[in-house]
Amino acid sequence: MRKIFGFALLLLVFSSVTAELWINSRALLVRHQGNWFFPVLAPLYPGQTFGEDYAWETDYRALQKKWRNLATADFVVLPPIPFGPLTIDLTLPPPSPPDTIHLLGTDSTGRDVLARFIYGFRTAALLGLAYLALTWLIALVIALVCALGPPWLDLALQRLIEVWTIIPFLYIAIAIASLMMMQKYLLVLVLSLFSWPNLSLYLRALILQVKQLEYMVAADLLGLPRWRIAWAHILPSIGPAMLSLIPFQLTAALVVLTSLDFLGFGLPPPEASWGDLLQQALEKPQAWWIAAPVLAGLFVFLTAVTMIGEAIRNKQNPRQTQNYR
Amino acid sequence: MFRWLFFCQASLFALALSSGDRSLSAAELPSRLKWETLDSAPSLGSPFAKVGGRLVTYIESFPLTLRQVGPDSSSSFRRMLDENDMSLVSLHPNDNVWMPMLATHWAFDPDGRTVYYRLNPKAVWSDNQPVKASDYKYTLEFMRSPFIQSPWFNEYYTKTIESIQSFQEKNGPEVIAVKLTNPTLDRLYMTNLKPTPRHFYGPLDNNFVTKFNWLIPPNVGPYILSKVDKGQRLVFTRKADWWAKDMVYFKHRFNVNEVVFKVVRDIQIAFEYLKVGEVDAMTIPNPDLWKPGTGEDAFTKGYIHKLQAYNEMPRSDYALILNQVYGPFQDKRVREALAFAMNVDRVINELLRDGYQRLQGISQGYGPYTQPRIKARPFDLTKADQLLKQAGWVERNADGIRVKDGQPLTAILSYSQSTMTPRFLILQEDARKAGFDIKLQQMDSAMAFKSYRDKLHQIAFMAWSVPYRPEYRSRFHSSHAGKPQTSNFSNTASPVLDQLIEEYEFASDDRKRIEKAHAVQHFVFEDASYIPLFEVPYYRLAYWSWIQFPEVSGTKSSDGLSYFDSAIGGLFWIDGERQKAILAARKRSDRVTPRTWVDESFRLNKAGK
Fold it and tell me: Which residue has the higher pLDDT, B542 or B288?
């Protein structure tokens, strides 16, 4: 079972990392009047580049069709699925069910659901990683200051953290989204600013525990500077415990990002995201193909990452036996 | 919507009293009044209508109060209470002429701001008290009272109406004279008040808001709210001996004995309730619900019928509003170019595919007040390109967006309705071709409105409410530009336009006023700050097929199933025998003839589509 989920997760990660090569509206390769172009690697080629009469981005599907009919030496190589996450295709009334052109159908604006699913996952995963990094950084610094700093600072910071945790995250996110355009970095920042307290409390406890050990007392007596103790002695000893937390936090991040998008306060349209797909599915419950991939994706991702997390935890603490099988 | 607003406003007018005037006997009615009335308005009802039965429909949330004024009173349910009030006169929905209601006759004073109404002596409240002239005077007292906690009503009734006087005609009915603060051409509309039951409310005090939260006030309309199951349902019962039931205009109308409003919090769920027969009728604003389902259901079996009825009434100015203060939009050519870059027809034809129409300009559907020659700018990238080049936006950056002095041509479109997202995404995609980078920002509705009023937006999306006559001052007058907390969202400021608006407001006759309205519309078109989007020229109903309609299902001003409105409501009836037959057929799972009918009686440009 673990292998299946692990494989599915790998597939998801691999396919989203390589998305541009197989699901994209830009051509992989264009030959025009003896010149070679790689639109997938370039920012944008206007239609004029290929002898069209418009200054906006080339419609490679139309170009391919046109050149095929002209039987010229010029040609276009499109990715296997020639639709990007933002490509609007209204040939059929949206949302249209899965067919041979759109394998998972289209959403309520006529965009390919598969493309939005894959690109949405990539965005969420990247944001999730950035969020993890930032949250950990804040939490760790505060925890170290609390545990190793003077007692009065610890006391003050603890009270501040208590106050901070009372502020409801969702309302703040909604307010910010209403006041300004939600950008990716802003989303990560807001999420992190509201997630570090619990983590830092946990880390502080870990550090305090380690601090009591004899070699720590010895290091202190030797007169090592605080930062050196933190870097060389504390971090390595709490490392495994930290590592086992990461997968669970990653899943939590994905769920929070998806929820925010679902509520309409995440990334602004037209950004592809799972939450946006779920939101559309709620408004059009008859279009099952919009929700299905996201639900399946969430299931696979959450299960696989949880399994990885458990594996790490078990390695570190063999007595722990509560596992998903 | 129009009808509802109309009633809101009418109800505003309706509750007024000049507290200073106590000299009832001393006042003399001017002798040379020319009384007018209309006794030829035929009923819109059907002679085949049958009385009786019960209709269940739904509301999305239970009202927070039964008061029609004060805190929490502006729920959608209030419309039902407002419709069950009546006013002095009413505008005929199809012929646009005034009809007598609580007044039998009316007469105009030469001063241009006073209207006399001869009251109908038969009119009674639902608690059998007669409707008296003092009830109209009380309206003014009530609406101006600080105790009702409605600053808007307070201000409106203070600013618009100067006084109400009452007279007793010799051996005749009571007469009231409603005097406005300013002369207007729409005197009848502006003075068309509703009475307020003085005997019920009595002297107002600090406890008003709490005391009357859940008390049902007496009314004069055809139904009375008879049962309130908190959080669950509200039931209106037909008054069997309604005082106005013999009036010609009300013949064959208000037929159903009971109208039940059940609380169903979501339209999707309400639709499921409809299919199983827990709800008898509902409007279907959502194209997805209108499209036939995939399997066998109550629609295909013919139990539930569908009606699409066209109407002909003022349309909301459903538009994108460009803030002229925002950098690129200071140049009119850029605004025009953006209008040319909006592929609204693609949204209509390829996304909505549902009989939506392009809104051509502001003030549509106002009959002679609408300037018919104004047409919205079509999608035309060549023109957009020319205009932008003239304005200096020549270069494009690596993303295909135009740049000038290093600044990209970008603007944020703020809106609050998630249903608009797919439409705006298509506009966004096509605007990119012209080199515009339109960013979409969906906001919470209160936040969006506040940011528009504070002029923090770059492009605002707004569906304006629909007044009785086109209203321009608050939206286009320079005195409202550049200031926070005003409705001039485009920040339009032009002495020429100011002049036109003033001439429009103080026109001495209708012809001049129409001329000025056209001029304002023309100016707004030329100014290119409004990009009109869509209009829906119809409403749609789904109903269990024992509900029957007259041959012409509604009126020009109908926008859904109206139950109680004295001008347009209660045209339908319930066919009890058919009800039994349908229910029996459902039990046996038999089919009856399905029906989706289109009532084009009030369709404009039938051939145009």
Answer: B542
Q: Is A90 on the interface with B (CB under 8 A)?
A: yes
- Amino acid (one-letter) located at B272: E
Q: Cβ of B400 and A46 within 8 Å?
A: yes
How far, in whole angstroms, is CA B609 from its chain's centroid?
Answer: 25
Nearest CA in chain B to A180: B441
Question: Based on the number of CB atoms within 10 Å of its own CB, is A195 exposed (0-12), middle (13-18) or buried (19 or more)?
Answer: buried
pLDDT in tens, B27-52: 678 878 899 999 877 788 999 999 99
Q: pLDDT digit string (tens) for A211-245?
A: 888 888 888 888 888 888 888 888 888 887 788 78
Query: 3-state DSSP helix/strand/coil percent for chain B, to nearest 5?
Result: 30, 20, 50
Does B268 contact A285 at a Cβ distance shorter than 8 Å? yes
Q: Are strands B410-415 and B437-442 parallel, antiparallel or unpaired?
A: parallel
Facing residues of B410 across strands?
Answer: B437
Contact assignment for A279 to B418 by CB distance below 8 Å? yes
Report the distance separating Cα B530 and Cα B520, nearest Å. 13
Return phi, psi of residue A9, to 5°. Answer: -65, -45
pLDDT in tens, B323-338: 999 999 999 999 999 9
Measured CA distances, B495 to A49, B47, B477, B486, B492 (Å)? 48, 56, 9, 18, 10
Q: What is the mean pLDDT of chain B?
A: 90
A–B interface: beta-carbon pairs under 8 A: 76
CB B327 within 8 A of CB B360: no
Using pLDDT thresholds of 50, 70 and 90, give the confidence band for residue A319.
low
- Cβ of residue A53 closer than 8 Å to a chain B Cβ: no
- Cα dihedral B476, B481, B484, B485, rounded to 10, equals -20
* Residue B605 zone, left/alpha/beta (φ > 0; ψ -120 to 50; rest): left
User: What residues of chain A lie within 8 A of the CB of B441, using their CB?
Assistant: 181, 268
Straight-line distance from the first to the last Cα atom of chain B, in angstroms, rounded to the nearest whole number: 24
Task: Please tell me the distance from the alpha carbon of residue A89 to that of residue A96, in angstroms, as a whole number.
Answer: 10
* 3-state SS record for B561-604: CCCCCCCCCCCCEECHHHHHHHHHHHHHCCCCCCCEEEECCCCC
Reply yes or no on whether the pLDDT at B19 is more than 70: no
Contact B428 A286 (CB under 8 A): no
Compute the average pLDDT of residues B346-360: 87
Tokens of B144: 């101006």
ipTM: 0.84
- Token couple for A119: 């690109």
Chosen from A87, A88, A108, A113 to mutate, greatest number of chain B CBs within 10 A: A88
Rounded to a whole number of angstroms, the distance from the CA of B422 to the nearest CA of chain A is 5
Give the residue-averaged pLDDT of B559-564: 93
* A110 in B contact zone (CB under 8 Å): yes
| CA pair distance B274, B56, nearest whole angstrom | 10
Q: In this model, does residue B181 exceed pLDDT 90? A: yes
Digit-coded pLDDT (tens) for A112-157: 999 999 999 999 889 989 999 999 999 999 999 998 888 999 999 9
